[in-house]
Amino acid sequence: MSAAPHHRLDGPDGAPLVVLGPSLGTSMDLWLPQLPALTRAWRVLRYDLPGHGGAPAPAGPFTVDDLAGGVLALLDGLGVERAAYAGVSLGGAVGTALALRAPERVASLVLCCTSPRFGDPRFWRERAALVRREGVGPVADSAAERWFTPSFTGADPYVAMLRATDAEGYAGCCEALAAFDATARLAEIRAPALVVAGAQDGPTPPRGHADRLAAGIPGARLAVVEGAGHLANAERPAEVTEAITAHLDRTWRGTGR
């Protein structure tokens, strides 16, 4: 499955392009907190995962590498040779796969609240089975607790994204996460990389996830955001936006054509 995904472009024509990848259970609107700052200097391309947001449900199984192939198809269709990429959680895994699959296309990389391997594959297969059996309701009911710290009061719009997600799309993404393991290949990544972690991230805590990405990718920087859970860009938007724009200012000011 490498068809171009449902997407949206914002920001000035001709500016260097930044692709933004969302997390499991969210839509491209996960990135709305960062959009005003990013569109001042970059052309921003957001996309939806299969069955998420405005994207149709998948026709069959797919892998994280297939999702990266869809991003490449999107860039090809837009005539873009090189772009920066930033992704949260599963969206970050897509960025890792993209940087490994087509290193010449990735000018800069931001991996936010993600991992080279998302734990025991059995957990993800069991969650896929649960969602196929009961729908997304059970995972949506506990999403705020998984995604944010207890003090965060703005979870509702993000949980609503999950409740609107197609069950098969969500289950397919779970199975893609189950099969993903880039640990042994991180040293092959050549893009200048920033790894952003939420200090209180439960699903992908800094220790054992973000630190492995930062140690494995040559020259990668690690930024740990205090007071942030798994969706750090939503919970601590100012800090995450500043980290991303500073990284892109250093690494991606050229043309995307």
Give me the secondary-structure category.
alpha/beta
Largest sheet: 7 strands, mixed
Estimated share of beta-strand residues: 5-15%
Rg from alpha-carbon coordinates: 16 Å
CATH topology: Rossmann fold
Average pLDDT, rounded to a whole number, is 96
The CATH architecture comes to 3-Layer(aba) Sandwich
* Physical arrangement of strands within the biggest beta sheet: 1-3-2-4-5-6-7
Give the tally of structural domains: 1
Determine the CATH superfamily.
Alpha/Beta hydrolase fold, catalytic domain
Helix content: 40-55%
Q: Give unreliable regions as ranges.
A: none
Tertiary shape? globular
SSE topology string: EEHEHEHEHHHHHEHEHH
What is the number of helices? 11
| First-last Cα distance | 25 Å
Pfam families: Abhydrolase_1
InterPro entries: AB_hydrolase_1 (IPR000073), AB_hydrolase_fold (IPR029058), AB_hydrolase_sf (IPR050266), PcaD/CatD (IPR026968)
Protein name: 3-oxoadipate enol-lactonase
GO molecular function, one term: 3-oxoadipate enol-lactonase activity
Description:
By secondary structure, the protein is α/β, with parallel strands linked by helices. The chain has one domain: Alpha/Beta hydrolase fold, catalytic domain (Rossmann fold, 3-Layer(aba) Sandwich), CATH 3.40.50.1820. The chain has a 7-stranded mixed sheet, sandwiched between helices. α1 links the parallel β2 and β3. α2 crosses α3 and α4 runs antiparallel to α8.
